[in-house]
């Protein structure tokens, strides 16, 4: 099979997979989760950090509810501001924080939980898992790219 045939087949598979998910592209869904946390003149580094948190929130919500808390505790350590926190510390921080708390740890927890709740609200049945996110320059614009897997999918 030549390169053109492989690309055509891949495009068909992607189109078919998107139909199963109401034509929602993961890149668009992640940007929707990030929108409330964007600020004017946000640095590229901070934008990428928020995007990473949205991918983590997405993946946590992709797990069945009965193991979601366990997966959250495993994934929460991927966020530098939250590394090393134990479950009890997280619960205490969230119970005792206020919306305007300047503590980086509290802010990141609030963003993570906000994105997690929004993800569950908007895309409750979407089980795709995000493997990687990155920006690709296309026609002078940075375009978000997402690599994902579909559980139980066949090749």
Structure description:
- The chain is of the alpha+beta class.
- The chain has a domain at 25-126.
- It has 6 helices and 2 strands.
- It has helices at 3-20, 26-34, 44-62, 65-75, 87-96, 104-122; strands at residues 129-138, 141-149.
- Strands 1-2 form a two-stranded antiparallel ribbon.
- The longest helix is centred in the middle third of the chain and has 19 residues, at 44-62.
- It is globular.
Strand content: 5-15%
Note the run of SSEs as H and E.
Answer: HHHHHHEE
Radius of gyration over all CA atoms, rounded = 17 Å
Shape: globular
Unreliable parts: none
Structural class category: alpha+beta
Please state how the strands of the largest beta sheet are arranged side by side.
1-2
What is the count of β-strands? 2
- Mean pLDDT level: 84
Number of helices: 6
Write a brief caption for the model.
The model has no long low-confidence stretch (mean pLDDT 84). The two termini are 16 Å apart.
Task: Please describe the structure with a list of short key phrases separated by commas or semicolons.
155 residues, 6 helices, two-stranded antiparallel sheet, single chain, alpha+beta
